[in-house]
């Protein structure tokens, strides 16, 4: 209005000059500036229908920041695009990529375009820095398969290390889960990583503009080595904005293997096996940990079934719940008759020890102790020499008090260790696996031991001695427990292979952190049923991993 007022204040409305100025003012008002921008920005040529914007900047050598034309409303994530960047060495090279993300900033649409292929030669006439959407359906299908758009998960972001990557999550089908296997390329090597967590984040763009995204974390498993049936650690970190994909291992043909190698399970969502050496697992002791119903007993039964061909198995289950699930039902290693005789001697000794020292029959106590050891040894020798029976159970006798039960158990383990040691020293070694079901009832942590603390601790010390030295004499342990808090750490720390199912208690997290690392411990509360974290000497891969133990 001010322009019109001053125009007609100084010039006549009938003059040609006034008419020209008025028309010029009117055109400025009605013309859309964005239309002018799209028309004349790129070398003053018409914007083609497949042009979506222009390159505004480069965030890395593979991630380009693109300012979208306002009239291009149909652009969405994972659209396939092509462009020629002005800083390329050759004008004949074309770059193929995808729209990684879109966002609104200061009322303008922007996009991040990720390069997913090496530049290739083309005869197409592409304007420098102009980004074109590929609309041909046949071409899109071909490129979608070639650059693996459907398996694309995100890009590496800062904070990644050799052992653990962080990635900005962006997947076409929102189906990524904890434990899933990822793959990427570093220096020509195909590396695998396993997802352990995800967290939502916000990024401040400018002033009050923000955008939200998800950061994922995955630990390195390494290169798959088919010959060794394991992953091999890689010693470097991927570059920022390296594309990350959900792994497709259909091209890997896993070779056949036999005992002592045993397929524990598979990496979730793949056919890659997690293989353990059962000889190492038992000889160096193994622990199965996790809440009730997570799959411990099922796996223990399967392992027992595998090792019984060359190992004598002794199950210690004071609640008789685990043993009752074994088929056929295993016999007691100590016959009822012998168990009764041993119990009578233990009761007599305990009654005698309750007397004053000067009233005790020391010689008779010593004699009965030797008789107990001899009786137990005869039963153990009978079982070890029986080629028709490889699984037995150690049952509690009918003893009058808890102290007597603990003494009975302590005698048994001491004699078992001495027998194994004797056979090793005489050149007749034999492999023995002791299964401790509900381990807290047999080897409690001292703060949880009931009854006579002294007697209970004596039993724990006896079993602890075997775990410390038993490997030299062929005696190994399979420890099954719900929580680490109430199980003897002397025994648990000797378990060189750990399989941990879902857990929630802080004590388990602290203890297991020394085995599987603090990052993997965070995954324990979220594990699915029959999923477990596996680590240790017997595992063929040298990195802790999440394994799916479900059976088809």
Short description:
The chain is an alpha+beta fold and about 550 residues long. About 30% of the residues lie in helices and about 30% in strands.
Global shape: elongated
* Mean pLDDT over the full residue set: 87
Instruction: Please state roughly what percent of the residues sit in beta strands, choosing from under 5%, 5-15%, 15-25%, 25-35%, 35-45% or over 45%.
Output: 25-35%
> Architecture of the domain at 285-330 and 390-495, CATH level 2?
3-Layer(aba) Sandwich
Segments where pLDDT lies below 50 for 5+ residues? Answer: none
- CATH domain fold name of the domain at 285-330 and 390-495: Rossmann fold
Q: What distance lies between the first and last C-alpha atoms, to the nearest angstrom? A: 80 Å
Helix content: 25-40%
CATH class of the domain at 285-330 and 390-495: Alpha Beta
Notable characteristics:
552 residues; alpha+beta; Elongation Factor Tu (Ef-tu), domain 3; 13 helices; 24 strands; 29% helix; elongated
Q: Your description of this structure?
A:
With 552 residues, the protein is an alpha+beta fold. Among the domains are: 2-30, no CATH class; 50-147, Elongation Factor Tu (Ef-tu), domain 3 (Beta Barrel), CATH 2.40.30; 153-254; 285-330 and 390-495, Rossmann fold, CATH 3.40.50. 29% of the residues lie in helices and 28% in strands. The protein has helices spanning 2-10, 16-30, 33-40, 137-146, 278-283, 296-307, 336-353, 362-385, 402-425, 453-469, 489-492, 506-516, 518-521; strands at residues 51-58, 63-68, 80-83, 93-105, 108-115, 120-121, 130-133, 152-156, 164-169, 181-186, 189-206, 209-225, 230-232, 243-246, 261-266, 273-277, 286-289, 312-316, 391-394, 432-436, 475-481, 497-500, 531-536, 545-548. It is elongated. The model has no long low-confidence stretch (mean pLDDT 87).
